[in-house]
Amino acid sequence: GAVVSQHPSWVICKSGTSVKIECRSLDFQATTMFWYRQFPKQSLMLMATSNEGSKATYEQGVEKDKFLINHASLTLSTLTVTSAHPEDSSFYICSARWGLATDTQYFGPGTRLTVL
Amino acid sequence: GNSVTQMEGPVTLSEEAFLTINCTYTATGYPSLFWYVQYPGEGLQLLLKATKADDKGSNKGFEATYRKETTSFHLEKGSVQVSDSAVYFCALSDYGQNFVFGPGTRLSVLP
Measured between alpha carbons, how far is A2 from B12 in angstroms, rounded to an integer? Predict the structure, then answer.
């Protein structure tokens, strides 16, 4: 099946710093990418949807200035957590979709962010 | 809006026991239904799916049937293994729409 990678797989940073997480579709062109956040022992919460070359659409309650999303190419989307704080510590999962059918969407392995 | 409800976990079973994880959904359209599995420290992996009523999805001994009349998509496996220990998410998605996930059910299988 299609492969979506994330980098890094885990990151530890100090409070106040910014962290960038990359999401790549390795063997297909992703017209749409999604970013999810997962708190410990909880389900995935959709943060934002991004289409290549356009601004991301954020879900209600997600701060767009804090979670910067860039989808500059059909194979790469980045999530930058700006001025990270301990409450931003979480598991961030991206997914990529090449069509509109649901079985064209694939999930990345996730990135665990810990903010000290 | 669309929503997914799953049975609360954790579920603890002995190896070779029968597994059922209940999932019901609410949707305005005719969504596709999915079960995803998340092993410790990893992302989501698609376990199985069904795209229309009465379809049965199956994979690795797991199966689930899309029941429109009861709006359910229960996950079953006849004989679980220790390696099945993970968190299982029921999810739905309408064509072109985002996924809606259930809260997840943690399964622990003891040897």
Answer: 32
What are the CA-CA distances from residue B30 to residues A103, B34, B64, B101, B102 (Å)? 15, 13, 17, 16, 17
Mean pLDDT, residues A38-47: 86
Q: Name every chain A residue with its beta carbon within 8 A of the beta carbon of B51.
A: 102-103
Q: Do A109 and B99 touch (CB under 8 A)?
A: no
Of B49, B95, B104, the CB nearest to A100: B95
- pLDDT for position A101: 66
Q: Of the candidates A1, A34, A43, which has its C-beta nearest B102's C-beta?
A: A43
Per-residue pLDDT band at A16 (split at 50, 70, 90): very high
